[in-house]
Design brief:
Shape: extended
Order of helices and strands: HHHHHH
Number of strands: 0
Oligomer: single chain
Strand content: under 5%
Length: about 170
């Protein structure tokens, strides 16, 4: 899909974005609330990375899926269309589920953090923020469950792996 040159460009581009972002967040942490420009730029970057980018990815994925379905209906007959839709349904479900779960888990927390940083809030608000923060940690583990639910090959490979482990453990006991 991607060439080596394209991959290198993406890595360089991400590095050029990540370094200034890291520096901005570091400056905000070091100087706390002493510099207004550092605070505003860090908040803007935080909002873009944790709110705008995930929502944009979700919208683009939904549009991509819609266009894929339109193209497959236009190009294929009814029998072939049904077969292709069943073949592409799993990656489509995984794509949308992954995007949606990320937006649901990270979006509210990101907005609440920005509100918390700039407004005088109550203890109840702070407790809600802590709960959202704890829930957002699931964003790092949900891919396993998405693959487990939607991926037939993944379930098969996982079953094979566990069968091997149980047979090795049983052999070690005897």
């Amino acid at each position: 899909m991607c060439t080596i040159t394209q991959t290198k460009r993406v890595i360089v581009g991400l590095s050029l974005v990540a370094v200034p972002l890291g520096c901005t967040i570091f400056i905000r942490q070091v100087y706390s609330y002493q510099h207004y420009a550092a605070n505003v730029s860090a908040d803007l970057l935080y909002f873009v990375i944790y709110v705008v980018v995930p929502v944009t990815v979700l919208v683009v994925n939904v549009m991509l899926i819609r266009e894929m379905r339109r193209a497959s209906i236009a190009n294929l007959g009814l029998h072939q269309h049904h077969h292709q839709l069943s073949q592409s349904a799993v990656p489509t479900v995984m794509l949308v589920t992954t995007s949606l779960v990320y937006v649901v888990l990270r979006g509210p927390l990101s907005i609440m953090v920005l509100i918390y940083l700039h407004l005088n809030t109550s203890l109840l608000f702070f407790r809600c923020l802590q709960i959202l923060n704890a829930l957002s940690c699931f964003v790092f583990a949900y891919n396993f469950y998405v693959y487990l639910i939607t991926g037939k090959q993944f379930r098969s490979d996982l079953h094979t792996l566990f069968c091997r482990c149980s047979s090795v453990a049983a052999a070690a006991v005897t």
